[in-house]
Amino acid sequence: MARITAGVATSHVPAIGAALDLGKSREDYWRPVFAGYEWAKEWIAKSPPDVVVLVYNDHASAFSLEIIPTFAIGCAERFAPADEGFGPRPVPVVEGHPDLAWHIAQSTILDEFDMTIINKMDVDHGLTVPMSLMFGQTDAWPVKVVPIAVNVVQYPPPTGNRCYALGEAIARAVESFPEDLDVQVWGTGGMSHQLQGPRAGLINREFDNAFLDRLTSDPDALRRLPHIEYLREAGSEGIELVMWLIMRGALGRSVRELHRFYHVPASNTAVGHIVLEPVAK
Fold it and tell me: Tens digit of pLDDT for each residue in 160-193?
């Protein structure tokens, strides 16, 4: 049977992808950002999963204001890098795992989650930047991916509690899949940042680090965090952090923190990263 072996959370700042693609990762500004992922790159290379269930948000690449699914799952065999206005990123095509994706879709829908099934979808920096951070520059990604896109762009986004519960439902789906697979669940986006308005450039180190603490020790408190608190404390784009709760919900009640990294700034954003391992009951 399939099993969830770890959870990863990371920011997906588009400028990080550009820095890597343009050969700027060793520049003084960017070196500390990429250094924060060296532990995770070595860790995952030693024991890569078979599949990553990667939770991210689309940035008007696959979806538009005409169609806004709250939760969508990619069930295709492959997903091309999206053209976000400057051409697609020079990264490999993302290989899907249709059998597991369809199983998760069926299981979560019958578990009373309204998942939108996507059979053709390009994926933008929300998905490809985390892949680059964890696997570096490569000719082919070493894992298959089941993309799960979450609406955190157009109000109303799902609550943290609903996202956590979806993570629990994904765990039930994975555990009922008959193939022998090691699966990781990744939550991406955040941390505190605001891209527009009078508070553009907002970064809240205290909130971000408290969120990282509670992700391990008190996820129930994060489940109850209302939208207005994300907006007030973490900026308008800080709501992306609810996607980390899908990852956390998939790991079960008890986890062990393996690695943590936090850095300010990368572009106009706080970068957060954590690796968690479920603790056997």
Answer: 999 999 999 999 999 999 999 999 999 999 999 9
Give the residue from 141, 18, 137, 16 showing the smallest Cα distance to 87. 18
263 is catalytic: no
Residue spans per domain, the chain? 3-278
- Kindly name the residue from 12, 103, 193, 273 that is annotated as catalytic: 193
The SS3 assignment for 150 reads strand
Of the candidates 125, 227, 259, 263, the residue annotated as catalytic is 125
Active site (annotated) includes residue 59: no
Spell out the alpha helix ranges (H) of the chain: 14-21, 31-35, 38-46, 98-110, 125-135, 160-175, 205-217, 219-223, 227-234, 242-250
Q: Tokens representing 28?
A: 């003084």
Cα dist from 248 to 139, 194, 214, whole Å: 30, 24, 11
Helices (H) and strands (E) in the chain, counts: 10, 10
- Where does 3-278 sit in CATH, by number? 3.40.830.10
The pTM (predicted TM-score) of the whole model is: 0.97
